[in-house]
Specification:
The chain is of the alpha/beta class. It is built from 22 helices and seven strands. The protein folds into three domains: 138 residues, MgtE N-terminal fold; 116 residues, CBS-domain (Roll); 152 residues, Tetracycline Repressor, domain 2 (Orthogonal Bundle).
């Protein structure tokens, strides 16, 4: 297969280049399938990266997915399977024979296998566990017993651990003999007779140390660690803060039972980002794909917040009725600014809440700096309010639209921005204090509250000044 490498210019990114290459590979694979050129397809699949093979398989129809997957060697098949999307893994798993499924599951890393099994129905998990060898089944059961969002679910028990009394020379020999069975060999842990974590050494430290020097003499004592029960988001924060490649995981007795690597955390961060984004936009977090999931599941995931917001927004009708006589005289002038005022309030509130929720998630915002947050929210709200009001007044003077109530609109703008900015900043803090996920302060909810509150504020100011 000949590929034309596109030239890169200012409007052509590396992402575009790789997407074009993948599209070409998919088209080439499809042409070989159409011609039934299985030998040529086999050679092609084994000449490219496993991630690219996974992309090709995901693009194919169900029957062809299975045919192509069965062309792969055992080693490549496992690698490709781990690079497939979770839904694709499940579909393929159900199409395998027991021997094929057992072989794939056994070859998978324990943490990747746990992630896959954790998404399957209990009856299917029970069946799949029976396909594993006894030792692998024991590992799988142990990891699945941990809470769903805990470190125990994403850790792997395949780590390098030594007694501190062995020498650097001896440890290198052991690392060589164990390397194929471990998740990573670049960090080794020192444990005592009870398997309690007491230190760590890097591969670099071992290589540079004198051959006869004992590990305990140059190990780093009391390395950063976390419990099996620690939330996965906290694990991500620890790894990010301390810039770790791997984090040791201990049980309630301080025994080293596993490690979490930075690539494991990538999946966690990706998943948490997806869920937070869905919450911000008023959607219940769901695993259902927009393109492949059922219509009813997609509707159900989005309807909850929409119904609540519709109910809240309905109060605006009753509100307008209470100002009926006043609006009868001022309706034309006041209606000119309804949309811009409540729109700005919703946008400012949503921006503020998202920034604060992100700060909470990254550990930047804590209960200790709440007062600083409040002060900055008020100050920035005043500055933005005055700035936006000034722009609004300037526009009114230029176009003469709504000139009669220019000061009412400007004053309302200032107050709406201050309140929206403060509300968006403080609500996540309050919810966090009551152990409620701050992400439920979604953009649609903040926007609806500011629509209603902004309308009340606008009409009250107008009623008193006009």
């Amino acid at each position: 297969m000949s590929e034309k490498t596109p030239s890169l210019d200012n409007n052509y990114s590396l992402v575009d280049k790789f997407e074009e290459i993948i599209e070409g590979q998919i088209a080439y694979a499809r042409s070989l399938i159409a011609k039934r050129s299985w030998n040529q397809l086999d050679r092609f699949l084994h000449s490219i990266d496993s991630h690219e093979v996974a992309s090709i398989i995901e693009s194919l129809e169900s029957t062809n997915k299975i045919i192509v997957f069965r062309l792969l060697s055992e080693y490549l098949a496992t690698d490709v399977f781990m690079n497939l999307d979770g839904e694709e893994q499940e579909k393929l798993l159900f199409s395998f024979s027991d021997n094929e499924a057992g072989s794939i599951l056994t070859a998978m890393d324990p943490d990747d296998r746990t992630r896959l099994l954790g998404d399957l129905p209990p009856t299917v998990v029970t069946k799949m566990l029976k396909l594993l060898p006894v030792d692998e089944r024991k590992i799988a059961n142990t990891l699945l017993d941990y809470p769903e969002d805990s470190a125990g679910r994403i850790m792997t028990p395949e780590f390098v651990a030594f007694d501190g009394n062995i020498t650097a020379e001896e440890s290198i020999s052991l690392i060589k003999s164990q390397s194929s069975q471990k998740e990573t060999i670049y960090t080794a842990y020192i444990i005592d007779d009870e398997k309690k974590l007491i230190g760590s050494v890097t591969l670099e430290d071992i290589i540079l140390a004198p051959d006869k020097k004992k590990l305990k003499d140059f190990m780093k004592e009391n390395p950063i660690s976390a419990s099996t029960q620690t939330d996965q988001e906290e694990i991500a924060n620890l790894i990010h803060y301390y810039e770790l490649m791997v984090l040791p995981i201990i049980d309630i007795r301080n025994r080293l039972v596993g490690i979490v690597t930075s690539d494991d955390i990538f999946h966690v961060v990706h998943e948490e980002t997806r869920e937070d984004f869905q919450r911000f936009t008023g959607i219940n977090p769901t695993e259902v794909s927009y393109l492949t999931g059922s219509i009813w599941s997609l509707v159900a995931s989005r309807s909850g917040w929409v119904l609540v917001l519709l109910f809240v927004a309905g109060f605006s009708q009753d509100l307008l009725l209470n100002y009926g006589d006043f609006l009868a005289d001022q309706w034309v002038d006041l209606s000119l600014f309804f949309t811009v005022l409540v729109g700005v309030g919703g946008n400012i509130g949503s921006q503020s809440s998202i920034l604060v929720i992100r700060g909470i998630a990254t550990g930047e915002i804590t209960p200790k700096n709440t007062m600083q947050l409040i002060w900055r929210a008020l100050l920035s709200g005043v500055i933005m309010g005055v700035l936006l009001a000034g722009v609004l007044i300037l526009r009114i003077f230029i176009f003469q639209t709504g000139y009669a109530i220019k000061w009412v609109a400007a004053l309302t703008m200032v107050f709406i921005v201050i309140i929206a900015n403060f509300l968006g900043a403080i609500l996540p803090i309050i919810l966090k204090r009551f152990k409620i996920d701050p992400a439920i302060v979604s953009a649609p909810l903040i926007s609806t509250l500011m629509d209603l509150g902004g309308l009340i504020l606008y009409l009250e100011i107008a009623k008193r000044l006009l």
